[in-house]
Structures are given as structure tokens and as C-alpha cells.
Amino acid sequence: MTYKEFFNKYNGKYTDFDGYYGCQCWDLGQRYITEVLQLPRTILDGSGLVSNMLKAPKRQVLDAYFDEVPTNEMVQGDVCIWEYGHIAIFDHWDGKNCWYFSQNPNPCQVMIINRSGLHAFRVKNKKPIKIKYRSHIETDGWQEWKKDGETSGTTGQKKRLEAIEGKIRPTKADID
Questions:
Q1: What is the pTM of this model?
Q2: What does DSSP say about strands 141-142 and 86-93: parallel, antiparallel, or unpaired?
Q3: Which of residues 165 and 101 earns the better pLDDT score?
């Protein structure tokens, strides 16, 4: 499930993941971690207050699955935890405010939340796929290596693309 699918599923609704204390921010966070990120529910389980996720021993669990990222580098889908005890999912920046998908006391919705005491987390290894590739063209042979969406092959020359060679997650030396 993608963030957008998750948003469409829960937007405007209340969700109670664990059946305790009604529909809290924690419930939406837990659903996101398990349904979208497909991580174990134990990441949030047993934390008591959400703010305890930022302290040992729960911080070590959080750090096993997430990297903390600067709040000015958040991307849609990052998990956000506030020191005062709130959790939400970053949605977007409109040039003036940060918007988060959140619940409590209202149903799930995108809202502005003050960034004071905010910590943002991104799933480990959720880096863009790096790829390096080249094409073998009729009468031309192998072309130079291309990377990350650059055009490989020919256009308008009516020559056959005879082969493609590629490397997924090449080393930095391969990309440069």
C-alpha cells in the first residue's frame, strides 16, 4: 500500500488500531507503520506515551528501523513524532506551513501542526534506486553508460535497440 492509498482509505475517518483509549494519533501511526511500511507493530507497542519513543529503550527500537532526518528535509510519508507526545505522517510543505496526516481529536485529516519539538523519521534503506545502463544500437554498438533516467538509445534514427546492460545499486564509482 502506498501513502496515497493509505490516505484515501482513512481520510475523514476515525481509526482505533488497538481498541484502547479510543481513536488516538498512536492508532493512525500504528496503522501506517504496519500497513504501508509493513514493519512490526512492536515498534510502537509498549511505549506508553508516544513521546517515550524518543527515549531509551524505545528509541533503540525506533533507530533499528528508521533514520532521523532533518525536519527541513522531510518527504511525504516520513513519520513525525513530537516531544509533547504526538505522532503523524508528513504530507507536504506549501511554502509556508508543514501539513501532516493526523488524528486526534478530529478524524484522520491533513492539518498544520507546529514544528516545535518535532523529530522526523524515514525508513532505513528507503533511498532512491540507483541504476546505471547502456544500450547496444544497430551499426553503432555499445553507447556510453547513462544513469538515473537519462535517455539511452537513439531517437528518430530508425535503428534497432539490440541489447541493454544495466547495474542496479552500482557503487558511487560506477555512477560518477
A1: 0.71
A2: unpaired
A3: 101
